[in-house]
Amino acid sequence: MMRKIITGLLLLFVSGSLVYWWATERSATALPATSAKLTPAEPKISGRQVVAYYFHATGRCPTCLKIESLTHHAITSKFSDELKYGRLAWKTINVEDSGNQHFIKDYQLTTKSVVLVETLDGVQKRWKRLDRVWEEIGNPESFIRYIQTELSAFDAQVAG
C-alpha cells in the first residue's frame, strides 16, 4: 500500500513538473521579445521621460510572469497618453543578457524588480525600485493600484 502511495506521489510530482515546464515555455514564447539591450540613459525623446522597467532573469516562474503582466496592465490602462506621446516608456529587460548585468548594480537588484527611472534629455536623474510588488502580487487589484499610485507620485515629483 505504501509503495502505491509513493509511486502515485512521484508520478504526480513528475506530471506537475512537466506541466509547469510546458506552461513556462509556452508563456515565455508568447511574450513579445522586449528584452532589448538598453541603458538607463538611452533617450527616446528630448526633455523629460519616465521609464518603467521590469527586470527579470532568463528563468521565469509564474509569479515573475504575473508581476510583468500586471505591471504592464497597470501602466497601459492608466497612462496610455503618456505612453503614446513618449513621456512614459515601458521596457522589460533580462539582466542575464549580454551587456545588461550592470542594471543589477545600478538599481541594487536582488530579485526580479520593477524600477521607475526619470531621465532629462537622456541623462538619468533619479530612480525608484518598487519593492512591494512581491507583497502585493497575491491581490491583483491592490498590485495594480500600487503600481499606478507609485508611478503617479514619481511622475509628479520634480527631480532635483
Question: How are the secondary structure elements laid out?
Answer:
Layout: H1 2-30, E1 48-56, H2 62-78, H3 80-84, E2 88-94, H4 102-106, E3 113-120, E4 123-129, H5 133-136, H6 140-156
Parallel strand pairs: 1-2
Antiparallel strand pairs: 1-3, 3-4
Notes on the structure:
The protein has 160 residues and is of the alpha+beta class. The protein folds into 2 domains: 30 residues; 109 residues, Glutaredoxin. The protein contains 6 helices and 4 strands, in the order αβααβαββαα. The chain has a 4-stranded mixed beta sheet. Strand 3 and strand 4 form a beta hairpin. About 12% of the residues have low confidence.
Outline, from the CA principal axes?
globular
How many distinct beta strands?
A: 4
Integer-rounded radius of gyration: 19 Å
Content-based structural category:
alpha+beta
The main pleated sheet reads as:
4 strands, mixed
* Cα separation of the termini: 70 Å
Within the CATH hierarchy, at the fold level, what is the topology of the largest domain? Glutaredoxin
In DSSP terms, counting alpha (H) and pi (I) runs of 4 or more, how many helices? Answer: 6
Order of helices and strands: HEHHEHEEHH
Percent helix, as a range, is 40-55%
Short description:
The protein has 160 residues and is of the alpha+beta class. Helices cover 48% and strands 19% of the residues. Helix 2 crosses helix 6 (140-156).
Relevant terms:
48% helix, 4 strands, Glutaredoxin, globular, 160 residues, alpha+beta
